[in-house]
Design brief:
The complex is a heterodimer of chains A (363) and B (131).
Chain A (H helix, E strand, L loop, with lengths): L7 H6 L3 E5 L2 E6 L3 H10 L2 E4 L4 E6 L3 H8 L13 E7 L5 E11 L2 E6 L4 H15 L2 E4 L3 E7 L3 H6 L4 H8 L6 E4 L2 E4 L8 E7 L3 H10 L3 E2 L2 H10 L36 H10 L3 E8 L10 E4 L3 E11 L4 E9 L5 E6 L2 E8 L4 E2 L2 E2 L4
Parallel strand pairs in A: 3-13
Antiparallel strand pairs in A: 1-2, 3-9, 4-7, 4-8, 5-6, 6-7, 9-12, 10-11, 11-12, 14-17, 14-19, 15-16, 15-18, 16-17, 18-19, 20-21
Helix pairs in contact in A: 2-8, 3-4
Chain B lengths: L8 E2 L4 E6 L3 E6 L1 H7 L2 E5 L6 E2 L4 E7 L3 E5 L4 E6 L2 H4 L3 H4 L8 E5 L11 H11 L2
Antiparallel strand pairs in B: 1-2, 2-3, 3-9, 4-6, 5-8, 6-7, 8-9
The chains are: A alpha+beta (363), B alpha+beta (131).
Chain lengths: 363, 131
Amino acid sequence: MGLRTPLYQTHVDLGARMVDFGGWDMPVNYGSQIEEHHAVRRDAGLFDVSHMCVIDLEGAAVRSFLERLIANDVAKLSIPGKALYTCMLRESGGIIDDLIVYCLGEHWFRLVVNAGTRDKDLAWIREHAQEAGVTVKERRDLAMIAVQGPKARAKCAALMSASDRTRALALDTFFGAALGALFVGRTGYTGEDGFELVVPAASVVDWWQRLRGAGVACCGLGARDTLRLEAGMNLYGSDMDETTTPLESGLKWTVAFDRRERAFIGRRALEAQLAAGVPRKFVGLVLEDRGVLRGHQKVLVAGVGAGEITSGTYSPTLERSIALARVPAATGTQVQVDIRGKLLAARVVRPPFVRNGKSLLGA
Amino acid sequence: MSNVPPDLKFTKSHEWVRVLPEGIAEVGISDHAQQALGDLVFVEVPEAGRKVAVGDASAVVESVKAASDVYAPVSGEVVEGNAALAETPEIINQDCYGGGWLMRIRLDNSAELDSLLDARAYEALVASDAH
C-alpha cells in the first residue's frame, strides 16, 4: 500500500484505475485518458495534486536565504501573491528539483515541490535554512487540486462567494491570493489557463465534489502527462535529474544570472559550463511516421552522434507522437529514432507543441 | 472487473479466439488486456497470406502507455487482418470482442483449440493476476 491523498477513496469510488506514482497510490485515468485530455483543452478538468509537497518558509532572512537556494531570482517576487518557476541546484549545477515559489508576505514564502523528491528536498532545505535562521514548515495539513482548461476559472469561481469570485478572477497568471482558508493560484501544468487550489486537507473532498458538480471532468496522471508534454513542460526524473544542469534541460530561461553578486548554489558550475560550451541541448521531436516515441529511446543524428529521448508520448491534440530529447548541440532539424529496432524519422522543433488548444507545428 | 464471454477461448497472454465456420479462428485481445493497455493509438495487423505458428508475435497494439505484441493462439494462414483498426484503433477499447477483432486465421490443426483456456479458466487467471 502506497501513500494516499485525502481523495484516495473518492478516486476509487469514481472507478479510477490506480497506480503507484513515486510511492503514492494515484489515479492514472477514470476511463479514457484521451477523453480526459480533450476535456482540459476544450473545457475544464480536475486533478488531485495533493501528493505534491507544500513547504512554508518564514523568518526575517527568508529572502536572502532564497537568493542562495534557488537559481531563479526571488527579487522578481516583488509583491505578495507573485509566483515563479525555478530549479534548485547542487554545487555541481545538477538539478535537485524544479518547483514553484510564492511570495505570501515579506517574511513568508511558500514552495511547492515534487512528490517523488520530497524527502531529499526537505533535507536540503532544512540543512541550509538552519544556517540562515529560517523556519521550515512542511504543510501536511493542506491538500491541493488543479482545475485546468479554458472554462476552468469560471467554473471554479462560480462556486465562491461574490467577493472571493471577484478577487479570484482578477488574478494575473502566476499570481495567487488567500481567500479565507482557500489559497488560489493562477498556475498549472497543462498549458491551459486555470487555478491550483490549496485547501485544508479536511475540505478537499468537498471541493472536489462541488467542482465535479459544476461540470469539471476528473482527470488522472495519464492525461496530466500528455497535456504537460504538449505544453513543453519538463518532468523531473524524466527530463532532468541531478546529473543534468538547467542549461542541458531547456531551463536556461529559469536561471537568473544578471545580478552578479547573487551567489546562488550551482552558479559557478553553470558559468563554467557556459564558458566551455554546453555539449548537449534539449529539443522537441515530432515523429513523422506511425508509432510512439518513448523515454530512453536512442536518437541518431547523422554525422553528429547520438542522443536520447527523455519523455515521449502520443499527443491527443496533434494526433501524432511527440517527445522531448537531449541531443548533441550540433543537431539540426532531422533525426532518426530507434523504436524497437526500427529507425523512424523525426523532426526537431522548439517546444511547446500546443498553445491555447492549437497546434504550433505549422504542418 | 473485466468481461469474459463464456463462448470464447483464451490464452494466458490475454488473446481470445472465436471459432468461425469453415475452420477460421477469429482472434483479438481480451477486455482485461484492453483495460490494462488504456487508450489504443496504433494497431498493426498481419497481411492476408502470412503464415503464423502458435506463439508467433503476429500483431502489435500500441497504447499511449506501451506497445504490446499479440501472439498467435493457433497456427495457420492469415486470411484477413482488421483494416478498420488503422483508422480507429479505439474500437478495441470500445468493443474488444466484436468490432475490435484483430485477425482471422485459417486453422492448420483444430486440435490446437483444445490447448486453449476456456472462459472459466481465463477468469480464474485474471482474478489471480489481480493480487
